[in-house]
Each structure stands twice: as structure tokens, then as C-alpha cells.
Model the fold of this input.
Amino acid sequence: MTELGSRFMSWASGIFGRMGGAGRMQGAAEGGLPVNLGGYDYGKNAAAQGKIQNIDQAMVWVVVTLLMWGMIMVYSATIAMPDNPKFAKYSQTHFLMRHIISMLIGFGVALLVFQIPLETWEKNARPLFIVALVLLALVLVPFIGKGVNGARRWISMGLMNFQPSEFAKLAVIIYASDYMVRKMEVKERFFRAVLPMGAAVALAGIFLLAEPDMGAFLVIAIIAMGILFLGGVNARMFFLIFAILVFAFSMMIAASPWRRERIFAYLDPWDPTHTLGKGYQLSHSLIAIGRGEIFGVGLGGSVEKLHWLPEAHTDFLLAVIGEEFGLVGVVAVIGMFLWLSRRIMVIGRQALALDRTFAGLVAQGVGIWIGFQSFINMGVNLGALPTKGLTLPLMSYGGSAILMNLIAIAIVLRIDAENKQMMRGGRT
Done:
């Protein structure tokens, strides 16, 4: 009986305890406090779910896929580099570890950037552009700028070599978007709307051509022109700007013997005079992609990366992908970049529909940047465009490029989150 009584008392105390708990939950609900269910704060959990839903998870997963695939390919493309006497002091994982460090830094900075409202970027658009110009000028200063293969484009910062031209791309996007918002009333006037923006881009171009980095200048010019067009600049003025750009780049090519040689090598890379000269990279890139056929030779099976194809881990990473994963791998990369660029442009269009002009132009500027640069890199690797020193966004080796790409993606995700918040009736 004693045992039975103790069991009854234990059962009763459990029942009354749960009833008391239910009473406390009801009292909390009636007092306007979050309801506590199962040890979780329901109010807080719902808010957390709302925040998660604000993030475009599909875009995040595509970006992560490109980053992870790029990391694997960088390791594959650089694993044999220590066999070269030039890199004999490096380990087989040297470039991989530096790439991982750059990705971790990029992820950390991107998380911080995601917390910054778009209003802050708009207020600081002009100071950012000035900082970009100063950094571009500092690259040219002896003992500050670092030169590699005859080009002075980097500033050593310990863990990574920072490339100011990558920062300049983002700065131009933000500055041009803010500029169009300020000049919206006079956008139909060439001298008041277009000419000042053209002068700012030309100033940045002078520094970039002095490095020299014509590829970055081309990307920045296309970004600025695209934002002007999307901002509502008159079509006649747009075509005038386009004609001026074509003329300017044609004159730069005509005035530079080594740039002319690149064009001739692109037209016929198999010519004996070009195969071992300016057409060497292009010819070996085509060999690598042709060797991959449909399904590739398998991960790690590339032959061209064994000191045949220069810069296989940076400018010509797609060629290694084509050799190891074949046509299927190349089409997959193209498809992901096409989807990513389109999604970013859709987010920008959505912001414009919500009357958020600055945010919309920034997002579309990032879409132009990612889409155009990936198009140029793929075209170079596939022999459709002349050789140009532009990396494949999110995938190629390069600390500052990865960092700025992730910052740009974080800004777009922030724009998308603010769009969704406004559509639910909230404030940004």
C-alpha cells in the first residue's frame, strides 16, 4: 500500500504540475508575453523564422556551390605547381589554404555587410568612390604597390594581396547608382547628367591603364554605362556613350603593340608565330577543353595544368573544369552563372517596382558585374574573345576578388530582404 500510495502521489503531482504550467502559459499569453511551448520562446522563434525567410536561400546555395566547386578546382589546378622551380618553396596545399582563408574572411565580412542598411551605402557613395581612387593611385606608388608579371595591381596586406581594382568595381556601382538618383530630374541632358559620370569613370580608367589593367577598366566602364541606361538615360545618349567607348578601346588597342598581338593571336591562335607567343594560353586552353570531350577525364586528371597552361588557377580555371568535367561541367557552370545573374537582376527590378531606385540600380549593377565578367572569362577560355586578365567570379583563385564578390552578394541579399520586408508592410 505504501508503494501504491507513493506512485499515486507522484502521478498526481505530475498532473497538477502540468496544469500549473498551462496556467502560467495562459497567464503569460494574457499578459501579452511570448507563449512558452516546449521550452522554446514562441515569439522569438517566429521572429527568427521571419529573418531566415528574408534571405534568398536559393541564391545562397548557388553561391556556396560555386565557391566550393571553385575551391576544389583551385586545389586541383595548383597541386602540381611545387614541381616548378619557381614555386618549389610552396607546399601542395599552399594555394588551397590561402584560398580557404580568403573565403573565410569573405564570409565574415559579408555577414557584417548584410547588417548594413542600403541608406548607409547611399549616404557614403561619394566617399567610397574617393577612397577607391586613392587606393588606385597608391598602387602606382613604389614600395606600396606590388608588381607581378610586369603589372602593378596589388597592395600587400599580410594574409592577402588586396587588389584595389576589385574594390573600385563595387565603388563605381554604388557611386553610379547614387549619381543617377541625384540626377534623375536632368537625366535627359548630356552635359549635366552623362558628362560628369563619364569624367569620373575616365579618371578611374587613367589609374587602371597605368597599372596596366584594361580588363578591369572595361568592366567598370560597362557597369557605369549599364547603370546609366537602366537609370533612364536617353537612348541616343546611351548609343553615343557606347560609340565613344568602342572608339576609346579601339584606339588603346591600336596604340599598344602587345594588345594588337593579342588580337591577332585570338584570330588565329594556331599560327606558328602565335602558338608560342601571345596565343599560347588560348591554344592550350582550347586543347584542355577539347580533351575533356563530353564527361571529362575525371577530377585531378587534367594534363594541361601540369605546367602547360599558364594561370590555370586564375584566368583559365574554366579550361581545367572543361578538361576534368567535360562539356557537362562547363554547361553546369554557365547555367549557374546565368541563373545567378538573372536572379540578381530580378531583385533589382523588384526594388525599382517598390520605388527604391538606389537599391534597384545597385542590385542590377552587381548583376551586370557578375554576368559581364563571367561572360568575358568564359569567352576567353572558349576562344570566343581575345585573352584578357579577368578571373571567373566566386571560383578563381584571388583573395580580393572573392572578398569583393561576397560583399556584393551580401548587399544584394540585403536589398532582397528589405524588399520582402516592405512587401509585408514593414519599414527598411
Residues 1-53 form one domain. The two ends are 67 Å apart (CA to CA). The beta strands are 36-37, 40-41, 145-148, 151-156, 161-162.
